[in-house]
Amino acid sequence: MASFYNNAINGPNLPIKATPVAADYVLINDSASTPAGKPSRTLVSSLIAATGVAFNSFVTDFGSSPTYDGYFTITDAGVTSGSFIVITQSGVAASGQDADENELINFHITVTPGTGNFSVYLQAEDGYVAGKYTFYYAY
């Protein structure tokens, strides 16, 4: 019988697959499970078929002086003021950052869509940030 450990997945140390295919599995936080939130797996093909979402990325630069937060405007011609935008922090370190920066810094993310762009407010949960961070987004 397989063991289940109730702890976070060490994402930054997992290999990165550049081009997932439909037969690949991804982990999800299953809201329909008992108890709710039990980790489960699903096929990439079911996510693509269900959502039709393509992910893009952007890099933010908080500068060299430590700060708690930052406002950024991301240009994307496909975004409209009615777009529903989902953003997540990348596990891949941006240029000039150590990989463990993504383990140690989490962000509260607020996004406001516009026409051809969106505004992002990023607030560090546990202190100061500096330098570059990569994020993925979809709409």
Which secondary structure elements does this structure contain, and how are they paired or packed?
Elements: E1 25-30, E2 38-43, H1 44-51, E3 56-61, E4 69-75, E5 86-89, H2 101-104, E6 107-113, E7 117-124, E8 132-138
Describe what you observe in this structure:
This protein has 139 residues and is mostly beta strands. It has two domains: 11-50, no CATH class; 53-138, Sandwich (Immunoglobulin-like). The chain has helices spanning 44-51, 101-104, and strands at residues 25-30, 38-43, 56-61, 69-75, 86-89, 107-113, 117-124, 132-138. The strands form three sheets. The chain has a three-stranded antiparallel sheet with strand order 3-8-5, with no helix packed on it. The N and C termini lie far apart (40 Å).
Large-scale geometry: globular
Radius of gyration: 17 Å
Q: Find the count of extended strands (DSSP E, 2+ residues).
A: 8
Unreliable stretches, pLDDT < 50, 5 or more residues?
A: 1-7
| CA distance, first residue to last residue | 40 Å
Question: What is the CATH domain class of the largest domain?
Answer: Mainly Beta
- How many H/I helices? 2
Helix content: under 10%
- Named at the architecture level, the CATH assignment of the largest domain is Sandwich
How many structural domains does the protein architecture include? 2
What name is given to the CATH topology of the largest domain?
A: Immunoglobulin-like
Q: How does the major sheet shape up?
A: 3 strands, antiparallel
The overall pLDDT average reads 81
- Widest beta sheet: strand line-up: 3-8-5
Beta fraction: 35-45%
Strand pairing plus helix content: what structural class?
A: mainly beta
Q: What is the ordering of alpha helices and beta strands?
A: EEHEEEHEEE
